C-alpha cells in the first residue's frame, strides 16, 4: 500500500512506508510478473536493500518512489494493450475466424523506446559512459543464430548486425581504436570517443551454440533497449563527422558479404556536406554560431543558409574542410599516433584469417587492406602489398616483395603502438605470448619477458625520432625539446646519485674501522689476538643487527599504536593484499622457471 | 547469466563483497592466526542455487514440451474417407508429376545464372508418392523448412523438377551462403552431427581436400569448387526458422504467384527471412 492511503487504525511509517515487496508491487501495478521485469529493465529500476527488512530477509524490496515511477509511465498502458491484442488474436483463431485474425495481426500495437533513452541519458556523454554493456550485447546477438525454440527473431539479429557494423565503421573512420586483445571468450576492443573509454567484447567468428541454461527473455529485453540506444548514438556520431545516417550501402558489396567495407566506402563518399545534409542540421549550426545574439531575424537566417550553401560551388571548399579536420585532429596526440601507425602499409588477408576483425583494425590505424574474393579493392598479385596475413601451413605462391605474418602481429603492433619486427610471427613459427593491454605491469609487480622486449623496442623507436630536427611541425619540435630536457635531467640525476653512493660507501667504511678501533699496523703485529678480535667483531655485528631490528620494530609499533582501530584494520587489509600479490608474482616466476627448465631439458 | 545487469553495479557489489571478505579475514587472522578460510556471502550462494535449479527445471520443461508435441500425433482416429482422400491425392500428384516432366523442357544447366543452388523444403502435405519421397530423401530434404546446397547439373535440375511442389530453390549470393554456414551449419563426422564451433573438426573431416577452416568451407561451397560434393555432404541440412507470420507457401510455382519452384535470385530474400 502506498503511504497516502491510510485506513483507520493502520498507519505506516519508516521503512514500511518507503519500501514494498515485489509481490505487492506487481499487485499494485496490476501487471504480470514478466511484464514487471521487462518494465524494470527498460526503466532502470532495480531492487533496494533496506537496513530493516520489514517483511523478512528472504524477500525482494523495491523503493516506493520507483514503483510510482513505473506506475506513471505510458509504457505500462501500452503493455496492457499488447496483452489484450494477443488475447483477441488467440480468440479469433480459436473461433476459426481467420479473416479477423489476419486483420488483427496486420495491425499490432507497437511502442518506441526513444523517450526512455532521453530520460535515462540526458546528455550524450552519459550515454557514451554506459555503452560497454550495450556494445557487448549487440555484438553478441549479431553473431547468434535465430533458433526456432527461442524467441530470438530474425529481424532483430539483422538489426544488431547492422548496428554493430555501423559502430565499427565509425570507429575505423575516426581512428578511435586504442587497444585490442584476443581471449578465449572473444576479441576485446577499447576505443576512445569524445574522451570516454569504451570497451566491448566481440565473439569469435565461429558458430555460437545456444545453451538452455540462459533465460533469453531478460536478455532480449536488455537487447531491445540497447538497440535503441546504439541507434541514437550512431546517429549523433555520424552527424558529428558530416555523414548521413542511416547509411545506404552498395547492394553489390552487400551481396558479396562485405558490409563493413561498403560502410567505409559510404563514409568516404558521404563526407562532403551541402545537398546531402538535412536542413535541420544547418539550423542547428546556425543556432551554435549565433549563441551570443538572443534574436535571429528571418532574413539573417536565410542569408546565412545561402552563405552556407555557397561554398559547395567554390573550388576551395574541400581545402577548407581538410584544414578544419586537420586542425580538429591536431588536438589529440593519441589519435595522431593511432592514425599513422599503419600508414604506407598495404595488407592482404588470406582466406583463413579473421577477416571482419582485421578489416576493422587495419583501417582504424591508417592501413590499406584487401582480401580474397570479388569486391576487394586490389588483388593478391598486386606488387605494392607489404604484408600478407596468413595462418596456413603451406602457401600456394610466395611473393618475395612482401612479408608473410600471422594475424597476432597486427594485434600486438596495435597494443605496442609501433611496428614490431616480424621474425617472431613468420608462418610456421610459434608466435610470442599475446599480452593483455589492460594489465598494468608496474602495478602488478611482474613484467613478462616479452613486455620488457616491447618496452625496449618502444624506447628504440622513440630514440629514432631524436635526430630529425629538420621537421617543421611544432608538436614534433616540442616533443623533441622535452625529450632532450628529460634525457639531460636524467643524466644529471644519475651522476649525482653515483657520487652520493660513493661518498656513502666511504663514510660507512671509515665508520666501521673507527668502530673496530684497529689499524693496519696492529693487525700485522699479532696473530693470535686476531682470532679473538674476529669473534668479538662477529658478536658486535650480531648486536648491531639485533639493535637495528629492534629499532625498526619499535618504530612500527609506535606508528601502529598511534592509529585508530579502523586505520589499523585498513593497514592490515592493505598488507594482506600486498602479500597476496607477491604470492601471485612468485607463482608466475616459479612457472616460468619450470617452463625454462623443461625447455632446456627438451633442448638436450 | 540469468539476470544480466550493467557491469557498474556488478563491480560495486564485488567491491562491497571484497571489503566484507577482507574484514572477516583480518578478524580471523587477528584472533586465531590460522589460514584464511574461503568466504562467500549466503545470499550469493542462494542465488547461485536458485539459478541452477531454474536451469534444471527449464531443461525438463522443454523436454516435456517436445514429448507432448510428439505424442499429440499418436492415437488419432483416421476415418476411411481420410484413407481414400490420401490415396487419391497421391495418385493425382503422381499424374501431375509425369505431366510436368513431359510438358516442361528444362534449359541446359550451363545456361543458368549460377552453378550453386539452394533448395528449401516448404511446408506441404504428408501425402507423398513413394517416388517423390525417395527423391526428397536423396536430396536430404525430409523435414519442413530445411535447406541444402546443390550443384546445378542437368540431373539435379531434373530431380528438382520432379519434386517441385514441395520445395523452392534458387541461386544464393555469397552473403547468404556465408550466413547460413556460419550460423546454421552443422558438420557430420563419425555418424554424428556437431556444430561448427572449431576449425579442428573441419580439418579432421575435410583436411585431405585442402579445406582446413570454416572460411575454406564457405569458399568451396560458394564457388562450387572441385570438392563441392564432399563439402556439401559434410554439411547437414540447415534448419531454418519459421517466420513470425507463417508463410502462405502455396504450391503454385513462384512465377505464377505461388511459393514453390525456381525463384532464381529472389531466394535471397526468403533466406534472409528464415535465417
UniProtKB/TrEMBL annotation, chain B:
Residues 254-275 have a biased composition (Basic and acidic residues). Residues 59-68 have a biased composition (Basic residues). Gene3D superfamilies: Ribosomal protein L30, ferredoxin-like fold domain. Pfam families: Ribosomal_L30, Ribosomal_L30_N. Residues 118-167 form the Large ribosomal subunit protein uL30-like ferredoxin-like fold domain. GO terms for biological process: maturation of LSU-rRNA from tricistronic rRNA transcript (SSU-rRNA, 5.8S rRNA, LSU-rRNA). Keywords: Ribonucleoprotein, Ribosomal protein. GO terms for molecular function: RNA binding; structural constituent of ribosome. Residues 40-102 form the Large ribosomal subunit protein uL30 N-terminal eukaryotes domain. It comes from the Eukaryota. One of its GO terms (cellular component) is cytosolic large ribosomal subunit. Residues 56-77, 251-275 are annotated as: Disordered. InterPro entries: Ribo_uL30_ferredoxin-like_sf, Ribosomal_uL30, Ribosomal_uL30_euk, Ribosomal_uL30_euk_arc, Ribosomal_uL30_ferredoxin-like, Ribosomal_uL30_N_euk. Belongs to the universal ribosomal protein uL30 family. This is Os08g0542100 protein.
Amino acid at each position: 500500500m502506498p503511504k497516502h492511503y491510510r485506513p483507520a487504525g493502520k498507519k505506516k511509517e519508516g521503512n514500511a512506508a518507503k519500501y514494498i515487496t515485489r509481490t505487492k508491487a506487481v499487485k499494485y501495478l496490476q501487471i504480470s510478473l514478466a511484464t514487471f521485469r521487462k518494465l524494470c529493465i527498460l526503466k532502470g529500476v532495480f531492487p533496494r536493500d533496506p537496513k530493516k527488512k520489514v517483511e523478512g530477509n528472504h524477500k525482494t524490496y523495491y523503493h516506493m518512489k520507483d514503483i510510482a515511477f513505473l506506475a506513471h509511465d505510458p509504457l505500462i498502458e501500452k503493455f496492457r494493450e499488447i496483452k489484450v491484442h494477443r488475447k483477441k488474436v488467440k480468440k479469433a483463431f480459436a473461433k476459426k475466424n481467420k479473416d479477423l485474425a489476419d486483420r488483427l495481426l496486420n495491425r499490432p500495437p507497437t511502442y518506441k523506446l526513444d523517450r526512455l533513452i532521453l530520460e535515462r541519458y540526458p546528455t550524450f556523454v552519459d550515454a557514451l559512459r554506459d555503452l560497454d554493456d550495450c556494445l557487448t550485447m549487440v555484438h553478441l546477438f549479431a553473431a547468434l543464430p535465430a533458433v526456432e525454440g527461442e524467441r530470438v527473431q530474425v529481424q532483430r539479429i539483422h538489426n544488431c548486425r547492422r548496428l554493430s557494423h555501423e559502430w565499427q565503421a565509425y570507429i575505423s573512420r575516426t581512428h578511435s581504436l586504442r587497444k585490442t586483445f584476443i581471449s578465449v571468450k572473444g576479441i576485446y576492443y577499447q576505443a576512445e570517443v569524445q574522451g570516454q573509454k569504451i570497451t566491448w567484447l566481440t565473439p569469435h567468428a565461429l558458430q555460437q551454440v545456444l545453451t538452455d541454461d540462459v533465460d533469453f527473455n531478460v536478455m532480449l529485453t536488455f537487447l531491445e533497449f540497447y538497440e535503441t540506444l546504439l541507434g541514437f548514438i550512431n546517429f549523433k556520431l555520424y552527424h558529428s563527422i558530416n555523414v548521413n545516417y542511416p547509411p545506404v550501402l552498395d547492394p553489390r558489396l552487400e551481396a558479396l558479404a562485405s558490409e563493413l567495407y561498403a560502410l567505409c566506402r559510404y563514409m568516404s563518399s558521404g563526407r562532403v556536406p551541402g545537398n546531402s545534409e538535412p536542413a535541420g542540421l544547418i539550423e542547428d549550426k546556425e543556432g551554435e554560431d549565433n549563441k551570443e545574439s538572443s534574436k535571429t531575424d528571418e532574413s539573417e537566417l536565410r542569408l546565412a543558409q545561402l552563405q552556407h550553401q555557397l561554398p559547395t560551388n567554390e573550388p576551395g571548399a574541400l581545402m577548407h574542410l581538410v584544414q578544419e579536420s586537420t586542425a580538429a585532429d591536431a588536438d589529440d596526440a593519441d589519435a595522431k599516433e593511432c592514425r599513422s601507425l599503419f600508414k604506407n602499409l598495404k595488407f592482404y588477408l588470406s582466406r583463413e584469417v579473421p577477416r571482419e576483425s582485421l578489416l576493422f583494425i587495419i583501417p582504424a590505424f591508417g592501413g590499406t587492406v584487401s582480401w580474397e574474393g570479388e569486391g576487394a579493392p586490389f588483388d593478391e598479385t598486386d606488387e605494392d602489398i607489404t604484408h600478407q596475413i596468413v595462418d596456413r601451413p603451406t602457401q600456394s605462391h610466395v611473393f618475395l616483395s612482401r612479408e608473410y605474418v600471422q594475424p597476432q602481429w597486427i594485434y600486438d603492433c596495435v597494443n605496442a603502438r609501433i611496428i614490431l619486427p616480424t621474425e617472431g610471427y613468420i608462418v610456421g613459427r610459434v608466435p610470442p605470448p599475446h599480452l593483455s593491454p589492460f594489465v598494468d605491469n608496474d602495478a602488478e609487480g611482474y613484467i613478462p619477458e616479452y613486455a620488457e622486449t616491447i618496452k625496449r623496442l618502444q624506447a628504440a623507436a622513440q630514440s629514432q625520432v631524436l635526430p630529425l630536427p629538420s621537421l617543421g611541425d611544432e608538436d614534433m619540435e616540442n616533443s623533441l625539446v622535452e625529450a632532450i630536457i628529460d634525457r639531460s635531467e636524467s643524466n644529471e640525476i644519475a651522476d649525482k646519485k653515483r657520487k652520493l653512493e660513493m661518498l656513502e660507501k666511504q663514510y660507512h667504511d671509515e665508520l666501521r674501522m673507527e668502530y673496530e678501533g684497529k689499524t693496519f699496523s696492529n693487525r700485522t703485529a699479532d696473530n693470535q689476538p686476531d682470532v679473538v678480535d674476529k669473534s668479538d667483531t662477529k658478536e658486535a655485528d650480531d648486536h648491531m643487527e639485533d639493535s637495528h631490528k629492534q629499532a625498526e620494530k619499535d618504530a612500527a609499533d609506535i606508528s601502529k599504536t598511534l592509529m585508530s582501530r579502523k586505520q589499523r584494520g585498513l593497514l592490515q587489509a592493505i598488507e594482506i593484499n600486498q602479500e597476496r600479490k607477491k604470492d601471485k608474482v612468485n607463482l608466475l616466476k616459479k612457472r616460468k622457471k619450470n617452463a625454462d627448465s623443461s625447455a632446456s631439458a627438451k633442448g638436450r | 547469466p540469468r539476470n544480466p545487469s550493467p557491469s557498474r553495479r556488478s563491480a560495486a557489489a564485488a567491491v562491497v563483497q571484497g571489503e566484507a571478505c577482507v574484514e572477516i579475514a583480518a578478524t580471523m587472522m587477528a584472533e586465531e592466526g590460522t589460514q584464511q578460510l574461503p568466504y562467500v556471502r549466503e545470499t550469493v550462494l542462494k542465488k547461485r542455487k536458485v539459478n541452477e535449479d531454474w536451469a534444471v527445471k527449464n531443461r525438463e520443461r522443454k523436454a516435456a514440451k517436445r514429448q507432448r508435441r510428439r505424442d499429440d500425433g499418436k492415437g488419432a482416429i483416421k476415418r476411411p474417407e481420410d484413407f481414400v482422400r490420401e490415396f487419391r491425392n497421391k495418385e493425382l500428384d503422381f499424374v501431375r508429376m509425369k505431366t510436368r516432366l513431359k510438358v516442361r523442357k528444362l534449359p541446359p544447366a550451363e545456361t543458368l545464372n549460377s552453378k550453386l543452388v539452394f533448395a528449401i523444403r516448404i511446408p506441404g502435405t504428408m501425402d507423398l508418392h513413394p517416388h517423390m519421397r525417395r527423391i526428397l530423401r536423396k536430396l536430404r530434404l525430409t523435414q519442413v523448412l530445411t535447406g541444402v546446397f546443390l550443384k546445378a547439373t542437368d540431373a539435379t535440375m531434373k530431380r528438382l523438377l520432379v519434386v517441385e511442389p514441395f520445395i523452392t530453390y534458387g541461386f544464393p549470393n555469397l552473403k547468404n551462403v556465408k550466413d547460413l554456414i556460419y550460423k546454421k551449419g552443422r558438420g557430420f563426422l563419425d555418424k554424428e552431427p556437431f556444430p561448427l564451433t572449431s576449425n579442428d573438426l573441419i580439418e579432421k573431416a575435410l583436411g585431405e581436400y585442402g579445406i582446413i577452416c570454416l572460411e575454406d568451407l564457405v569458399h568451396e561451397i560458394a564457388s562450387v569448387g572441385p570438392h563441392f560434393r564432399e563439402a556439401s555432404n559434410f554439411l547437414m541440412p540447415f534448419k531454418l526458422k519459421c517466420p513470425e507470420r507463417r508463410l502462405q507457401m502455396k504450391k503454385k510455382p513462384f512465377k505464377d504467384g505461388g511459393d514453390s519452384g525456381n525463384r532464381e535470385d529472389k531466394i535471397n530474400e526468403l533466406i534472409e527471412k528464415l535465417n
